[in-house]
């Protein structure tokens, strides 16, 4: 199963590190200083007992097209970033991708983002159907 986490701050980074430490390959989509730090040193969890665990993602990138389609996309950016991010998620999606929001999704912004994601998913499905020779239901 291919899992991508978009946004590697406190929540996204924690989820990525835990999944990686459990043996699940994870692609982390980040930008700027966070991306550079993840590429250089991986993700470090500081545990309550004071110990640390480091996890290295299969891929850390800011290029969604290079990451390609995933089975699960966990969106862990702040709510105010969703409207700008949603239209760019297409390269991570396939006809069967599950998209999970983790961090915040509320108010009118959530309705706008939901519509953008629906449009992106509809495009992916339409493209898949157009390329198919046979469709079974």
Give structural attributes:
single chain, 137 residues, alpha/beta, 5-stranded parallel β-sheet, two-stranded antiparallel sheet, 7 strands
Would you summarize the structure shown here?
The protein has 137 residues and is an alpha/beta fold. The chain is built from five helices and seven strands; from the N terminus they run βαβαβββαβαβα.
Account of the protein in words:
- Helix content is 40%, strand content 20%.
- α1 (10-21) links the parallel β1 and β2.
- It has 137 residues and is an alpha/beta fold.
- Strands 5-2-1-6-7 form a 5-stranded parallel beta sheet. A two-stranded antiparallel sheet has the order 3-4.
- The model is unreliable at 129-137 (pLDDT under 50).
Question: How would you summarize the topology of this molecule?
Answer:
Blueprint: E1 3-6, H1 10-21, E2 26-29, H2 32-41, E3 43-46, E4 52-55, E5 59-61, H3 64-67, E6 72-75, H4 82-85, E7 98-101, H5 107-131
Radius of gyration: 16 Å
The poorly predicted ranges are: 129-137
Number of strands: 7
Q: What characterizes the major β-sheet? A: 5 strands, parallel
Structural class: alpha/beta
Shape: globular
Mean pLDDT reading: 81
Number of helices: 5
The arrangement of helices and strands along the chain is EHEHEEEHEHEH
> What's the N-to-C terminus distance?
23 Å
Task: Name the strands of the widest sheet in spatial order.
Answer: 5-2-1-6-7
Q: Helical amount among residues, as a percent range?
A: 40-55%
Strand content: 15-25%
């Amino acid at each position: 199963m291919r899992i991508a986490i978009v946004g590697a701050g406190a929540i996204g980074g924690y989820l990525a590190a835990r999944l990686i430490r459990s043996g699940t390959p994870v692609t982390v989509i980040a930008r700027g200083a966070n991306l550079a730090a993840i590429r250089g040193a991986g993700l470090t969890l500081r545990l309550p007992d004071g110990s640390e665990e480091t996890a290295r993602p299969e891929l850390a990138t800011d290029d969604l097209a290079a990451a390609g389609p995933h089975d699960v996309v966990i969106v862990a950016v702040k709510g105010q970033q969703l409207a700008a991010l949603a239209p760019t998620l297409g390269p991570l999606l396939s006809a069967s991708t599950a998209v999970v929001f983790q961090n915040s999704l509320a108010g009118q912004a959530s309705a706008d983002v939901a519509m953008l994601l629906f449009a992106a998913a509809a495009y992916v499905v339409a493209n898949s159907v157009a390329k198919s020779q046979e469709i079974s239901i």
